[in-house]
Amino acid sequence: MKPISDHLKEHLSILFVGYNPSIRSGETGHHYANPNNRFYRILFQAGLTPRLYKPQEDEDLLELGYGFTNIVARPSLTAAEITPEEYRQGRIILREKIQNMQPRVVCFVGKGVYEQYSGRRGMAWGSQPDPIVPGVVEYVCPSSSGLVRMKLEEMVAIYTGIKTFIGMELGNG
User: Fold this and answer.
1) What is the pLDDT of residues 63-98, one digit of tens each?
2) If you compute the radius of gyration of the chain from its CA atoms, what whole number of angstroms results?
3) 68 beta partners
4) Bridge-partner residues for 14, per DSSP?
5) What SS3 class is residue 167?
6) 149: helix, coil or strand?
7) DSSP state of 48
8) Is residue 67 within 8 Å of residue 10, measured between CB atoms?
9) What is the spatial distance between Cα 3 and Cα 22, in angstroms, rounded to a whole number?
10) Would you say 107 and 17 are in contact if contact means Cβ atoms under 8 Å apart?
């Protein structure tokens, strides 16, 4: 199965970074396409999007200043299938993307994604100190996968915090 396309441009407000595409994303060519994935619902409920988007509209989020990539490009059933070598290569490629594109915020969709990228452990949700790429806010959120057992409301609250870094008013999205 082929990797899916990144949605990137320079100076994004937010670059969302996942582990790797799901099998469903690989089949459809769209980010967060698994019907059990709550990504687009979380963005809408957090006030980051003006309406509920569908996975087929992922490229439309570029108009809002939001881009997509993954630390590993190969689709798989679970992140557990990603090899250490894939993570090692992905870490290098991802850092280059961030340096070249200079997004305001890099939102890591899962603590494990940030751990693989940064080599750090034990971080709290939200903005991280000492970013790997200076001048970029590194923001850690829960994975939106349906496999994650965190309550939707808790996830939405964490994602809502991104608004303080991209100049959105908290009350009116």
Assistant:
1) 999 999 999 999 998 888 999 999 999 999 999 999
2) 15
3) 7, 16
4) 66, 105
5) coil
6) coil
7) S
8) no
9) 10
10) yes
Burial class (CB in 10 A: 0-12, 13-18, 19+), 95: middle
| Structure-block tokens of residue 167 | 């100049």
Tokens of 55: 């996975």
Return the DSSP state at 172: T
* Residue 163 amino acid letter: K
pTM of the predicted protein model: 0.94
Distance in angstroms (rounded) separating the CA atoms of residues 53 and 64 = 12
Q: For the chain, how many residues are written? A: 173
- Contacts of residue 138, defined as CB under 8 A and 6 or more positions apart, other chains included, come to 106, 108, 114, 118, 127, 128, 131, 132
Per the structure block, which two tokens stand in for 11? 């100076």
